[in-house]
Amino acid sequence: MKIPRAEEPEGTNLLLHAYLDGELDVASAIAIERKIEAEPALANQAADIHALRAALRNNFPSEPIPPHVQSRIDAVVSKDRISRWRPTWASMAASLVVAVVLSSTSTWLAMKTPVSSAFTSELIDGHLRSLVAQQPTDVASSDRHTVKPWFNGKVSQSPRVKDLSAAGYVLAGGRVDVLEKVAVPTLVYNRRKHLISVTAVPEAAATPGSASVKGFNIVSWNDEGVAYWAISDLNLAELNDFARLYREPL
Description:
The protein has 250 residues and is an alpha+beta fold.
């Protein structure tokens, strides 16, 4: 049997599902993430899968494996492998439910992508990927006149880019992230050894304020029809100071 390669459609599809299941190593995850960012069709596919899974989690409570099925599993699988088998069984069950959802009049539930904890998780995931990547940016420059025009043609609207080096927040460059099917610009600043990711989403609305999620601090605000999220492991006081300086007029 021919094993599909990563560059073939079937191979890419397998890698995409493995990526969304969290089964890839760091290097492979970064590679498929870059591929998602470069290919809108693949980004749409990933977003649809993410939306379906979110809908399933929210609308279909998990159920235990039926006893008669569990007994058959126990008969053929050793005790130390049961924990690895269960996720596979859960994935099979989820696939069946996905088929039911897609073929029913409730498909709209799976397509809903409300701004919620899932959206916040996507923001944090983008920041995490930048931390483990060899380079946290697609364009590396401390010159705002280089970074801002780089986004032209890649996103719907270039973000405002400020030089805050005098205050100790040094522009490192920018990258394109994908949030809910949409390519959005993210700026990267350095504060000592800490990275700050600033994601700008045009025609969106953020809930102004700050929060700590998964060990990261997040500060959000709105400015002239654009929603901003600044994410970092920098302490919250300094991150708020950065957001204040960033919001000041150019």
